[in-house]
Write a structure and sequence with these properties.
The chain is mainly β. The protein has strands spanning 14-17, 37-40, 47-50, 53-56, 61-64, 73-75, 82-83, 96-98, 105-106, 119-122, 128-129, 142-145, 151-152, 165-167.
């Protein structure tokens, strides 16, 4: 499944990924605002579903949160070390996301246009924040960045109109 293959399919509510799928491109299901369930065949060697969200088979990468869900909060499992590109992009219901203490990287556009997200705490485990990671998060008022972040990508907080304070640690190069 190629990059952005089903991006912006606004009426898409569920996806079933068969065991034959070996590759899913970046943002393949991004901006599918009605998407509430992603299921993966249990025999798929590369991917799995946990609570209707898409992960790498080893559970280390959160590839796609089903952004059509109405939950206002989400806890990223401790098994996750990487938040994929566009993983939460265009999610309008989440006001808070708890990033697990094993996450080391936040991908490009990971939380872009999460219009209800009000605050984010990036744990010390994170070392990199991708470009446009929180772009256009209009309700974002505060960001806490962990002490091990070394890189913050271009426009990571672009157009965050409500952001009033951010402290960049000395670790950022």
């Amino acid at each position: 499944i190629g990059n952005a293959a089903f991006s912006s399919c606004k009426s898409l509510t569920s996806i079933v990924i068969p065991n034959s799928v070996t590759s899913i491109g970046d943002g393949a299901f991004s901006n599918c605002t009605s998407l509430t369930s992603i299921k993966v065949d249990e025999n798929n060697a590369n991917y799995k579903s946990i609570d209707g969200n898409l992960y790498s088979k080893d559970g280390k990468t959160l590839i796609q949160y089903a952004i059509g869900k109405t939950a206002t909060s989400f806890d990223i499992p401790n098994s996750v070390t990487s938040i994929g590109e566009y993983a939460f992009a265009w999610c309008s219901s989440l006001t808070s996301v708890t990033i697990g203490n094993n996450v080391t990287s936040i991908g490009e556009y990971a939380f872009a246009v999460c219009t209800s997200l009000t605050s984010i705490e990036i744990p010390n485990s994170v070392t990199s924040i991708g470009k446009y990671a929180f772009e256009n998060c209009k309700s974002l008022t505060s960001v806490t960045i962990g002490n091990n972040v070394t890189s913050i990508g271009n426009s990571a907080f672009y157009d965050c109109d409500s952001l009033t304070s951010i402290e960049i640690p000395n670790s950022v190069t």
